[in-house]
Amino acid sequence: MPGTAAGLTTGIRTSEAELIERARRREEAALREIMQANNRRLYRLARGILRSDSETEDVVQETYVRAFTHLDGFIGDAALSTWLSRIAINEALGRLRSRRPQVELGSVPEATLEAQIIKFPVSTAATDPEKSMAQREIQRVVEHAIDELPDAFRMVFIARVMEGMSMEETAELLGIKPETVKTRLHRARTLLRENVEKKIGPVVLDAFPFAGQRCERLTEAVLRRLGVGA
Asked: Is the pLDDT of residue 6 over 70?
């Protein structure tokens, strides 16, 4: 990782430069702050390549170890999050190549390059288990559909939609043109919609459940109003 500490603040916001300097001194609070700010993005990007929860966790750990031991090489030509993302992507691609030697960079994303992929509200789980179960099933369907997207489309979808990165940020991260990002995102959305619609049928049949606690609450309320029972 080329570069020197002298160039550390080049193009970096003062607050980020200070955070990086503290991390270089191995201050625990700074290291924690960096990881907490980047964990989700790194996990999603790496998982978009590997599609394996356990391997992805290993990659994220390795990414931080490499980054924190080579912070002198961070010259600030991009945001820290982008630099970390590139390391994670390269680590994931390295794992993929060792697993499938025939894979080339061009067949995944071009150039460089929880578990939760999409979180659904679970605050109602205790009071409405049927709804929670339906949400988990929908989440499973969506996650599987994302996993089935072609590699290049999946990475653009994760960066743009799931991580909310701009067109320019995504293009820079994946080493492609903004127009290519736009085209791939459109295609990814189309494929994802078709895939989800094809698989969601059985889940939709169980929508608006009326059983369990909900059914029991209604039954007891009616009986109370009728003065029946205890």
From this structure: no
